[in-house]
Amino acid sequence: MTDTHLDRDVLSALQEVMEEDYPVLLDTFLADSEERLQILREAPDAAQLISAAHSFKGSSSNMGALRLARLCHELEQRAQEKAPKGLAKLVGEIDGEFALVRPLYEAERQRSLASDSSNRCC
Amino acid sequence: MSDLAPPFEPLTVLIAEDSAADRLLLSGIVRRQGHAVLLAANGAEALELYRQARPHLVLMDALMPVMDGFDAARQIKQLAGETLVPIIFLTSLSENEGLARCLEAGGDDFLAKPYDQVVLAAKIKAMDRLRRLQATVLEQRDQIVRHHRYLLNEQRVAKAVFDKVAHSGCLSAPNIRYRQSPYALFNGDLLLAAFTPAGDMHVLLGDFTGHGLPAAVGAMPLAEVFYGMTAKGFGLAQILREMNAKLKRILPVDMFCCATLLSLSFQRRSAEVWNGGMPDGYLHDIASGERRPLKSRHLPLGVLSAQAFDDRTEVFPMALGDRVLLLTDGVIDTCDSAEQLFGVERLLQVFADNLEPGQLFEEIEQALRDFGGQARDDVSMLEISLVEPAQLTPPALVYSDSGQSSPLDWSLSFEFRAESLKRFDPLPYLLQLLLEVHGLRAQSAALHSVLAELYSNALEHGVLGLDSRLKRDVRGFARYYQLRNARLEQLQEGYLRVHVQVAPQGTGGCLVIEVEDSGHGFDVQRVMDRPLDLGRLSGRGVSLIRQLSRNASWSDDGRRARVEFSWEAQA
Amino acid sequence: MSVNTQVSEDGRKLTISIKGRFDFAKHQEFRDSFGQINKQLNSVVVDLKEATYLDSSALGMLLLLRDHAGGDESDVRLVNSSSDVRKILAISNFDKLFDIS
B276 CA to chain C: closest CA distance, Å? Predict the structure, then answer.
């Protein structure tokens, strides 16, 4: 089972909805995600971990980062078990996945700004 | 083909979502759909924004810091009160429990992440339809409440007008007891009572079809006829004809008035009854204990044309202390929770168990309460007793003239022949004329009584040839009045002449009345020799005439009667 | 529908059947059934076999029917009345206006 890292269809739908605010959306997502990752890395109590994982799952799925969303879901489930195991490893995977998709979003942001300005020329 | 979809109306949507990116995205989606957006990052902010701005719809993230979506939703629903503010929960909770929590907290729907804009648009539309439906329901309810208040007010006004037109007459007389709800009028129940100029009492218990103002509206003209004609000395038959004609004329075809009319004569000790469509009345003979039902023999008032109307009454003798009980069908029709009717049998049982006549009303009411029936507004009851005339004080007649002009020296003669005698009672007109003589006004009761006696004697014993000895018992009474009606209907020949003369006498004046009939006469001396005894049922009322007038005399073998009334100068 | 109408084959007789409580709630339906009354009709029959109860507004409706059917010249019959219904009709003496059986 290979998840898509970044679903392009979702992105184009997002762009259509947000129009000129599309770049802002991307920026906001990236900033939010950094914060959440920070929380995950600091390994706080279970409740905070679950909450952050849940939240991250939600926004990544909205933004088309499917594999990221799935990993967060797994973390959320595992952290609710009586004797959770392998949480740190999972956080590491999430970290890695985000590092992978982050440049993709940044590139997307550049692309949209460029096409925007080129549109404005006409 | 269905109707065109209603025109698009933009809504104000409150979005409560703690993830900034998701909030931004959602706001973009909703704005793109044409709506205005308010943003909150947690439950507390959402609540505050709701309080200030009262948006139409809320998209609420379930899990938020400070105050979560469930709490916020509960509080927002409370704030909204009767208004429906749809709340759509946003959740990536996939477990059923999570979804159940959403609904329990007052959520109306939920939307899963990732957000699908098509689904969201559809849900917003559906929720908005519900919201508008609720708003319509509330508006209509408020309208209904307003209209109801207007209606109640209209009824109050109508009742005030009615109370002026149809004052309670003599319902407060010592020989009458009655029960009636203050708003019985709006159930069509009508209770009227009035003295005639002769000191008799006329009573009407009526029940109009319908409810509310349509039922009440017919009561006013009816009351006017009843009071007006009773005050002038008209008999039941004429009053009935007039009331029927009036109602037939003014009411729509499907409306009518069931009624029982009663004329109680304290001097003659009789009750004259007409019942059209009402439940049985009861005539209680104290001596024998028997309660004779007064049955409905006629169609209600306002149904038949004047030609077809049947004004025949039944007459019953009464002794001192005897009572007549009348009631509307509200008593019989009282239902308990099992939809059983109180019914006539239970009422008869109350009669049978009754030991103290004065307690009958209370016992009937207690029986109704014991039956457990639902209290109704249309339970009206009346009980009237025959008492000595001296116990009653009829009000003095009120005259509408200035008292200046009074005819003091005149005479009048007229003759009524068969056809007129059948359909016409000249007494009220004659009396109106006589009361123009101011000196006679103080004696108007006696005048009415004497004239009525003279007239009925001349008509019944004279022209119709009825024997008063027939009236020795109840059956005889009934037979007598049946014969009277029958003979009157078939009358071909015969006449009745009335001669009236008013002349000054000393400082006052004197009235002479002569009544002559075409009958066979009677043995005057024999009747005069009988001691004055008003306890007997029969008798030519000769005693009464002799008591109430001066110099009563009979001539021409009893075919002509002559009486006098005189008065002193007015102070 | 608790008020049913049926015209006879020769078009001369209209039968109106009432089911259940004959009271104000039936007013509109009953009035609508008059619409079938026309000059060709000789008689109207109201079948009360399944009528459980009559109140004063029902009596009013019968008067309306009679009026539409020609008033004094009309021929309106009330048939199959139960004993309860008969009692109600008897108290108001409606047998003087309608043929009741």
Answer: 6
